Amino acid sequence: MDDATQQPPRGIKRLSLGALSGLLAGYAAIAVAELVAAAVRPESGPVVAVGGAAIDRTPPAVKDWAIRQFGTNDKLVLQLGILAVLTVLALALGMLATRWRLLGSLGVLAFGVVGALAAVSRPDSTSFTDALPSVVGAAAGAALLYWLTGRLGPVGGAAGTLAREDRDDNAPEGDPGADGSGWDRRGFIIAATAAAAASTGAGFAGRALSGSRGQGAVASRKGVVLPAPASTAAPVPRGAALRIDGISPFMTPNGDFYRVDTALTVPKVDATSWRLRIHGKGVERELTLSFDDLLKMPLVERNITLTCVSNEVGGPYVGNARWIGVRLADLLERCGVKPPSKGGPADQLVARSVDGMTIGSPVEDVMDGRDALLAVGMNGQPLPFEHGFPVRMVVPGLYGYVSACKWIQDIELTTFDDYDSYWVKRDWAQRAPIKTESRIDTPKPFGRPKAGNVMVAGVAWAQHRGIDKVEVRVDDGPWEEARLAAEDTRDTWRQWSYAWQATKGGHTLTVRATDRTGETQTEKRTPPIPDGASGWHSVVVTVD
Question: Helix (H, G, I), strand (E, B), or coil: what is residue 524?
Fold first, then answer.
């Protein structure tokens, strides 16, 4: 008997073909959804929407664990995890559909509903059309699964069919079975191959369309010419950047600057259509600004070190850059805003990003004379997309989660009593000045330096207070003062070095810093939650 009349597959073979059908259906659902998302809004795709919802609902301790384990790859790991789970579910639904076609297909639709609900519940969602990618993708996947499993031929209908199929396992090859029907093996292979090809095409089309939607933003960034600042940063003093192998460079290149945020896809904002609105309590004159409006204002250029609150003791989430932007205090004063110390009714500034993130900063801090900026440039270039193009906030002395809003589009003046921003709702502190910290960059943990003169070096930071002293301890010996590099400003980190006469064997090196207020960083170890990690950084080395 030829392929067109072969006996329907049974047992493991049938389940395997069902699993393949489920995998193809899941692939089609994701590909079609991404194509529709490219037409609606790239951020409305099911993987991004479900991933964002997962981030929002993940306990802070788990988020910190993910950042520690995976660093800036945490979002990639999350998306791969979502795809892995979807793969397993697709396989399971495919096998289920070999017995109950409709039930398996309805299962695919159910996951489309989950994706749709996640999409419309995102903070940046503004329309129910965000549900369309998940719904349309799931419908395509469900239809494909129903069609492919139907081409496997009948199961036999009743619950006893599998038993009947088992009884027929010894039937001669080509026997159409007790019900007289067969399956089209060649037709199934052609259908599965066509489905895979069409899904791949839809996926590529979606990627291409999404990329084209961002071309306007890319072009707008290329067209930005940053004006000369009215107030330039002073040259970095000689001796501020130590020439020691292994130490962090004094200025962090844009490509090496840490990135910690919740955006699974980096927003591509067109500077020509970008607008910023300033409104709320105590705002006498609401203001809406374009990007060109900002560039026409007096710009200031400052070197400022930023620190993420998720940074563990000795961690990498701290960097120093030269920022250019407009003083935030000048804009607020233009709107008639007064800080609480001068009778203003608002004590919190809530910045909102295009992706729905909200960040609350103390009004008093951004108006106390420090160089709080709406930054448009970083290290002489327009902001990279990853770091907030076209405009972001930079406030020296505050952890990023209470100051560094990227892709900012709205500023509302309110109070801490009236509104909890994104991270505060997740048990982080409302106010979070950066703690005095220090780090050993070299030698590295578990390094094996040679006996003799070993240069121990690193960085220390206490933004808006400044570093006055760094001390190093070898094992349980006395604290000895390190040599401080020249200070740039009190808003930047400070490099340090210590010449150690190393003796053979295992040793523990520990560092601590003292800021300009006279406060020495505490030995007590605390986690990043709720307002930043504390403790002394130490490394263990073996001297050969």
Answer: coil
pLDDT tens-digit series, residues 366-414: 999 999 999 999 999 999 999 999 999 999 999 999 999 999 999 999 9
- Return the H-helix or E-strand segment holding 282: none
Q: Which long-range contacts (CB under 8 A, 24 or more apart) does 189-197 make?
A: 191/147, 191/148, 191/151, 192/20, 192/21, 192/24, 192/148, 195/24, 195/28, 195/144, 195/148, 196/24, 196/27
Evaluate whether 446 touches 427 at the Cβ level (below 8 Å).
no
- Which residue type occupies 470? V
Q: Peptide bond preceding 390: is omega within 30 degrees of 0, i.e. cis?
A: yes
Pair of tokens at residue 195: 């489905």
**Sequence letter at residue 507:** H
Residue 337, judged by CB atoms within 10 A of its CB (0-12, 13-18, 19+), counts as buried
Rounded CA-CA distance 339/342 in Å is: 5
> Which of 135, 108, 124, 110 is CA-nearest to residue 33?
135
Residue 453 phi, psi dihedral angles, 5° rounding? -75, 115
Question: Global pTM?
Answer: 0.84
Indicate the SS3 state at residue 520: strand
- Residue from 168, 45, 219 nearest 115 by CA: 45
Considering only CA atoms, give the Rg of the chain: 30
Q: Which of 5, 250, 26, 36 is nearest to 130 (CA)?
A: 36
Q: Are 203 and 48 in contact (CB under 8 A)?
A: no
User: 169: pLDDT confidence band, cut at 50, 70 and 90?
Assistant: very low
How does pLDDT run across 117-168, given as a tens digit for each residue? Answer: 999 988 888 889 999 999 999 999 999 999 999 888 776 543 334 334 433 4
How close are the terminal C-alpha atoms of the chain, in Å? 77
| pLDDT > 60? residue 1 | no
Q: How far apart are CA 164 and CA 157, in angstroms?
A: 11
**pLDDT bracket for residue 353 (50, 70, 90):** very high
Q: What does DSSP assign to residue 390?
A: T
* Burial status of residue 527 (CB atoms within 10 A of its CB: 0-12, 13-18, 19 or more): middle
User: Other CB atoms closer than 10 Å to residue 223's CB: what's the count?
Assistant: 10
Task: Indicate the range of 214-218, 353-357, 413-417, 470-474 predicted with least confidence.
Answer: 214-218
The 3-state DSSP class for residue 285 equals coil
User: Alpha carbon of 141 to those of 18, 44, 135: distances in Å?
Assistant: 14, 18, 10
Instruction: List helix spans (H) across 98-182.
Output: 101-120, 132-150, 161-167
Angle (CA) 61-62-66 rounded to 5° is: 120
Residues forming beta bridges with residue 320, ordered by sequence position: 305
DSSP structure string for 220-256: HHHT--PPPPSBPPPPPPTTSS---TTSPPSSPPGGG
Please give the distance of CA 431 from its chain centroid, rounded to a whole number. 22
